[in-house]
Amino acid sequence: MSVSIFYLFFITFVPRNMPIRVNKMSTWLGYKLINVDHINTLVPEGTTVAPMRILSQDIAEPKLLFNIYESESSLFKGCRFEVVTMVKQTKNPRKVHFVVLECLSNTLQWDPINGIQLPNLECNFNTTQNQIILDCTQNERILHMQAKVGRKKQITKMFAVDANLLCFYRNSHDGIQLSFNEDQIMQDVNLLSHVKIDTNIWKEFRGKLTHCFVHKHYMDFTADMITFKMS
User: Fold this and answer.
1) What is 19-224's CATH topology?
2) How far apart are CA 219 and CA 217, in angstroms?
3) What burial class does residue 58 get, using C-beta atoms within 10 Å of its C-beta: 0-12 exposed, 13-18 middle, 19+ buried?
4) pLDDT tens digits, 119-145
5) What is the rounded distance in angstroms from the CA atom of residue 25 to the CA atom of residue 132?
6) Cα(221)–Cα(214) distance, rounded to whole angstroms?
7) Does the model's pTM come out above 0.90?
């Protein structure tokens, strides 16, 4: 591929019918979200931060989520660290969406605001069936975590399915429409125990740590970019 064609690909790429596989042991950390008013300035117009129930027995409240996982597609293969919240449409509050507030990665990544970007994260993701050790570093920003894999729990359809159907990056209205097998995505997660975390990432928006869990199964998605106007 010539330099000019490669550059053209870089500046024009958008995901179209792109398969993405999220590997086993995708890890979620959930915090009570604080400074909600500021977060509402970062999400798409026509949406607002929504309370969510992650596990079936939860009391709904706004969350700041860290999702760290290894994945592969035609564009990238590596580790992604996404900072996420859930929003609802103000005129149609039954419609909820994940919004990625920031993505760190040790491989290429794409978003509708910045396009394709080079790696910006050092990540060591070491897992077994019973343990997770994570070390993520971006300059002075860190996340170090150790945990044991525990018992299974049921997740809600709002979290696993509804919010994944159409996702956004920050305040862009160019959303990512995801297709997937609901039965695969709705499989029980495994809670993490004996959790030790040291992180300074998004600390001004993190309250109490409320959730730690992993998906012990693969998850397959197909991604398409669409421009979406809130009704």
Assistant:
1) Acetoacetate decarboxylase-like (2.40.400)
2) 7
3) middle
4) 999 999 998 889 999 999 999 999 999
5) 8
6) 17
7) yes
